[in-house]
Design a protein that fits this description.
The chain is α+β, with helices and mostly antiparallel strands. The protein contains 19 helices and 30 strands. Strands 1, 2, 8, 9, 10, 11, 12, 15, 16, 17, 18 and 19 form a twelve-stranded antiparallel sheet that branches. The longest helix has 22 residues, at 416-437. It starts with a strand and ends with a strand. Bound molecules: beta-D-glucopyranose.
Length: 696
């Protein structure tokens, strides 16, 4: 069946059904609230990919160390074991303003119309609700199951079972199933309660891997409430009294919460329907990842929308979510950094285990904060062929990224409590890591950083990556600056004593920061890393994205091809907080544009940001291409989840590119651009104040 996607401000409408596109649409229609999520594949097709997730729930797995657990499917509805072939028409609407997904399906045999409303509650964070209305020419049998699910392993050739079903308990219209995670012994309880109106009756059913209700009738409505609880974790063990469930009241409370949030954010886009729809969609999915009750937030690279990157957390959150969570959603960046605080001890251990001092944050993090980057990845199972993955060992800029985000957070919030509790300590430990990681190079008379991978992952084991060195320098300077500032403050003195900081150490940080090698510069073009300028000049005659086969990575590393924004990103970060000579930004943007494949979805929005900053006429095209990422599935992997960093990068383009926001010293400077009729307005928060900004 033909499908068609229509995007309007705060509305996404998908018509038709095509099994091949369901994975993609399932991500776009995923519902979440930062604590739980329910994947949005069509509920009538019995897809076992309609899994659910709970933030922070991981279990051990070979290769990836730990991965996010796919929880049982709770949204599938089986009508007379309806076959996909009997689907005549499907129309699904994601109403982002209210946080509600509606699904209308017309079935041919028997002649049936099906309508459902689903939501993942924004206030009652553990709850998913679904209200089903069915009308048919014949008596129907409807099955409403909770179905065990498995995590696919190695391209789906085999599966990992992370959960063991422990008990199933029926009490009237409620079923509760408990599961135990295999390694950590956490107990997850999933309960489903139904209320039927107009149906004949309901029965319980239980099989080896599912349990739930069977309802019979012709013209009826079923309200379904599903609760997810981590029994041995007080924070998520919300207790709701199941007795007085009232659909109208609960859904009203949910909608009001969304409406209020949107009003606070005040996002208005005029003059371009696609930009308006796309920006509201990316923003909606970002907002769906924030649990406003949680102390800390672990946002996986693909959100709670799929198992891409196994639910691991990368620099994507600290760097890419920085403008959105720092300036649009108050508290968001603090929660992201709280996750880093919670795992600071693991980072300290990691540094020590690898021969360094201070805190070394893992490139890929999970719930326990230990390095979880796979060491190798199987590329050909028949030949047992694997490629080595060195990002865990070498992509050390992550620690600098966290320091940058932390400094940014303090500048926009002035949150002393955070600094006192953990921020200062984290900055100090990160500076100690860099101080132990840099080496003095006699010839260069500078401090150098060897054997790293910068954001451009095509080049492995390089020395003096401009991006990495810049972030190392920034971290050392920031730590020294804050220690000097807070040393005058009585409230901070005990922390400085506890950290055992001496003035020699602080002076050393200043010395290292000033002496870090900055690399070669040719006519204002900064060399990405040592030796880059001498690499082969590839013929990159393609516009848009280009893919490189992992097996060819070694060859690609011998060329100037760049995977994603690298020097350009470093310059953007610098421009935001310090300022960069516009000609330097322009030359680097033009030069590296020629070589960048944008194979990573983190790239296009950053180039768009730079483009807007230097008034390049093609910036808008880059911005639109970035917006297409998940909507048009341009990377072909949206079924594995939502591209969180792309969404964050789109907000870079809006806030720093279009609205011209800069942080200079203690001031927030704004210089919105005239956008040829495109008006983007949003409320920003700065040090507790609300500022309304808009492009003209
Ligand atoms: C990118 C990284 C990113 C990761 C997760 C990779 O392809 O190169 O920069 O952190 O994806 O999104």
């Amino acid at each position: 069946m033909q499908t068609n996607v229509e995007l309007k401000p705060f509305k996404l409408i998908i018509r038709g059904f095509d099994e091949d596109k369901e994975g993609h649409y399932g991500t776009l229609l995923t519902l979440a609230n930062g604590r739980i999520s329910v994947k949005g594949l069509l509920e009538l097709t019995g897809s076992r990919n309609n899994v659910a997730f709970m933030a922070g729930l991981y279990n051990n797995v070979p290769i990836w160390r730990r991965e996010l657990i796919a929880l049982p499917a709770v949204n599938n509805v089986y009508i007379n074991n309806a076959q996909k072939e009997s689907i005549e028409y499907v129309e699904r609407t994601l109403d982002m303003f209210n946080g509600v997904l509606t699904t209308y399906v017309k079935l041919r045999h028997p002649n049936t119309s099906y309508f459902s409303e689903s939501l993942v509650h924004r206030v009652h964070k553990n709850m998913y609700m679904q209200r089903i209305s069915v009308s048919s020419s014949k008596i129907l049998t409807i099955t409403l199951p909770i179905e065990n699910s498995l995590n696919p392993f190695l391209y789906g050739y085999t599966y990992t079972e992370h959960l063991r079903r422990k008990s199933v308990d029926f009490q009237g219209n409620k079923v509760s199933i408990t599961y135990e995670t295999r390694d950590s012994g956490l107990i997850v309880e999933i309960s489903m309660l139904i209320a039927t109106h107009g149906a004949e009756d309901f029965k319980h059913f239980i099989t080896r891997d599912s349990a739930g209700f069977i309802v019979e009738g012709r013209d009826f409505v079923i309200e379904k409430y599903v609760l997810f609880r981590r029994i041995n974790d007080e924070k998520t063990a919300e207790k709701i009294n199941f007795v007085n469930f009232n659909w109208a009241e609960l859904s009203q409370r949910h909608k009001e919460s969304w409406n209020k949030l949107w009003e606070e954010i005040g996002l208005v886009v005029e003059g371009d329907e696609y930009v308006a729809g796309a920006l509201s969609l990316y923003t909606f999915h970002l907002l769906q990842l924030i649990d406003d009750e949680a102390e800390d937030l672990m946002i996986p690279a693909r959100g709670l929308h799929g198992l891409g990157y196994r639910g691991h957390v990368f620099w994507d959150t600290d760097v890419y979510l920085l403008p959105f969570l720092g300036l649009v959603y108050p508290e968001g960046l603090r929660k992201i950094l709280n996750f880093r605080c919670r795992t600071l001890n693991s980072a300290v251990k990691y540094a020590a285990e690898t021969g360094f001092k201070g805190a070394r944050f893992p490139w890929e993090s999970v719930d326990d904060g230990y390095e979880s980057t796979p060491r190798y990845y199987p590329v050909d199972l028949n030949k047992c062929e694997c490629v080595d993955i060195l990002t865990g060992e070498q992509e050390i800029h992550i620690s600098g990224d966290i320091a940058f985000a932390l400094d940014f957070y303090y500048k926009v919030s002035g949150d002393r409590e955070f600094m006192q509790r953990c921020g200062l300590k984290m900055l100090v430990e990160i500076a100690r890591f860099w101080a132990s990681r840099v080496e003095y190079d006699q010839d260069k008379k500078s401090y150098v950083i060897r054997n790293v991978i910068g954001p451009d992952e095509y080049h492995v084991g390089v020395s003096n990556s401009y991006y990495t060195n810049y972030l190392a320098k920034y971290s050392l300077e920031a730590a020294a600056r804050y220690v000097v500032e807070f040393s005058k403050d009585d409230e901070f003195k005990p922390i400085l004593t506890e950290l055992g900081i001496t003035w020699n150490e602080v002076e050393n940080w200043f010395k290292l920061a000033n002496g870090i090698y900055e690399g070669r510069v040719h006519e204002k073009v900064i060399e990405e890393f040592e030796g880059y300028f001498e690499l082969a000049d590839p013929d990159l005659n393609s516009e848009g994205i280009r893919r490189v086969d992992v097996k060819d990575l070694e060859d690609v590393g011998k060329t100037k091809l760049v995977k994603q924004a690298d020097v350009v990103l470093a310059l953007i970060l610098k421009e935001i907080v310090e300022g960069v000579d516009p000609e330097t930004l322009k030359r680097n943007y033009e030069y590296y544009s020629k070589y960048t494949t944008h194979e990573s979805s983190l790239s296009l929005p950053i180039y768009a940001t730079a483009g807007f900053m230097i008034n390049d006429p093609s910036a808008m095209k880059l911005f639109i291409n970035a917006l297409k990422t998940d909507i048009e599935n341009i990377y072909g992997n949206t079924h594995e989840g939502f591209h969180v960093a792309t969404a964050g990068g789109i907000w870079y383009a809006v806030i720093f590119g279009i609205l011209g926001v800069r942080l200079r010293g203690n001031e927030l400077i704004v210089d919105p651009k005239a956008m040829n009729g495109l008006r983007i307005g949003v409320n920003l928060r700065y040090k507790g104040r609300k500022l309304r900004l808009s492009s003209s």
